[in-house]
Amino acid sequence: MRGFFRGLSYMSSAGSSADAGQAAPRLGRYRWRICAMLLAATTINYIDRQVLGVLAPFLQEEFGWNEIEYGYIVTAFQAAYAIGLLCTGVIIDRLGTRIGYAIAIGVWSLAAMSHSLAASVGGFIAARFMLGLGEAGNFPAAIKTVAEWFPRRERALATGIFNSGSNIGAIVAPLMVPVVAVTWGWQAAFLFTGVLSAAWIVAWLLIYRTPEQHPALSSAELAHIRSDPPEPTVRVPWSRILRHRQAWAFVAAKFITDPIWWFFLFWLPKFLHAEYGLTLMGLGLPLIVIFVMADVGSIAGGWLSGRLIKRGWSVNRARKGAMLVCALCVVPIVFAARADNLWLAVALIGLATAGHQGWSANVFTLTSDMFPRRAVASVVGIGGFAGAVGGMMIATFTGLLLEATGSYVPLFLMAGSAYLLALMVVHALAPRLEPAQLDVPPAQTI
After folding, report:
1. Which pLDDT does position 225 carry in this prediction?
2. When comparing pLDDT for 383 and 20, which is higher?
3. Of 208, 222, 203, 238, the residue nearest 95 (C-alpha)
4. Residues near 130 by beta carbon (within 8 Å), at least 6 away in sequence
5. Which of 25, 112, 335, 367 has its CA 20 to 30 A from that of 131?
């Protein structure tokens, strides 16, 4: 992994010259170490939340949950995640990413371990609610960190890299959870992430500072990070942010497409168990394949828009072109529920998860394309709230639908159409991805 980020930093710093006939000094790569920290945090985040998804088919049998009760457990997480996102963006903007991020991961780690004490539907609902509150801090903090540490032309790639942690976590969980659960019991699976989280918090507090305050950062790399035009630093209230169509474009994209990802996380193990009879140990390989494909999609989606910008495309055309490619990758999932072969279903679902993650890398980057750094965490928090509300709705709907019909067909039809719909809405609200003029009086921004 260290070599990977070293290569990335070398590629990003190559190709410029200080003056005619002389090569520019090497920029340095410390910003990619910060990106690696974000990748690690996001990986831990998704291991924590995915433990329940992997164990769900078997906990449901042990505790006698029906589909509706499982839907309520998932809804509790989504509700808390939505509430948390309303607060964490502002808190992180106020406290800064160093302290705000450490607090968030501390809360979600304790909540994840508390699942081991649950013995009823109510116990799992309480644990999931606290987990959602803590995990809500991850993406606002990570996106704000990217905005602090990367120039605009590198942000999509950096976002794609740390966002790939969601897939790494979803890969590690089916590798680790069945073995731990079979060997030491399901409670141990929820306790495992506590050590990882504690180690990350210590490393983060030791390593992280803002670029201007970081002693390990070279002057050349700092100049590269700050190569975009300077921005004001005064915090922006939500009331001003929500006056702009750009904010509503991000909110709409999250509301429409985030629920599909939540469905993938919490119901794919149940789908594979129900449709193909996979055991706890048998779930591992199909889930790993699906989320490895998602991991590739996350990095490729961020790379694609950055590559198009380097080829001379406008930011607007490059971002939306990459988003269209990702949206089209999700469409074939409409056939997954009818697939008569496990690996055909896995391939269709994996392509869709790759499309979602590539889409997500670009959607997150829209916030730093259209808003100044001082507003990014708040915008991400508002959009994340909308996505979590959508997740609440699909969790309850999925539980009711499956309890009544047992059919996944309508759910995959929804997934296949959501991204194209979202892209149309984003284009209607932000046709040119023009930056929001937060300091212009409201009458001039409508």
Report:
1. 85
2. 383
3. 208
4. 80, 107, 110, 111, 114
5. 367
Cα 25 from Cα 383, distance rounded (Å): 40
Whole-angstrom Cα distance, residue 440 to residue 433?
17
Could you tell me if 147 and 278 are in contact, meaning their C-beta atoms sit under 8 angstroms apart?
no
pLDDT digits (tens, 9 = 90+) for 321-332: 999 999 999 999
pLDDT for residue 440: 56
Which has the closest alpha carbon to 140: 179, 178, 91?
A: 91
Q: Is the pLDDT of residue 414 over 70?
A: yes
- Name residue 22's beta-bridge partners: 19
Distance CA 144, CA 381 (A): 11
Helices (H) and strands (E) in the chain, counts: 18, 2
The CA distance from 28 to 31, in Å, is 8
Distance (Å) of CA 179 to CA 9, 15, 172, 432, 444:
37, 47, 11, 50, 60
Q: Roughly what angle, to the nearest 10 degrees, separates helices 2-13 and 30-63?
A: 140
- Whether residue 232 is predicted with pLDDT greater than 80 in this model: the reply is no
Q: Residue 406 carries which side chain, given as an amino acid letter?
A: G
- Tokens at 191, concatenated: 């306790």
- In angstroms, the CA 325 to CA 351 distance is 12
Fold of 29-210+234-435: Growth Hormone; Chain: A; (1.20.1250)
For residues 84-114, b (16+ Cβ closer than 10 Å) or e, as one string?
bbbebbbbbbeebbbbbbbbbbbbbbebbbb
Say if residues 75 and 396 touch (Cβ distance below 8 Å). Answer: yes
Spans of all domains in the chain: 29-210+234-435
**Phi and psi angles of residue 244, each rounded to the nearest 5 degrees, phi first:** -105, 140
Element (H, E) at 398: helix 373-405
pLDDT at res. 382: 86
User: Residues 6 or more apart from 99 whose CB is under 8 A from it?
Assistant: none
Q: How many CA atoms lie within 13 A of 395 on its CB side?
A: 23
pTM of the model: 0.74
Q: What is the pLDDT of residue 256?
A: 97
Distance CA 414, CA 262 (A): 13
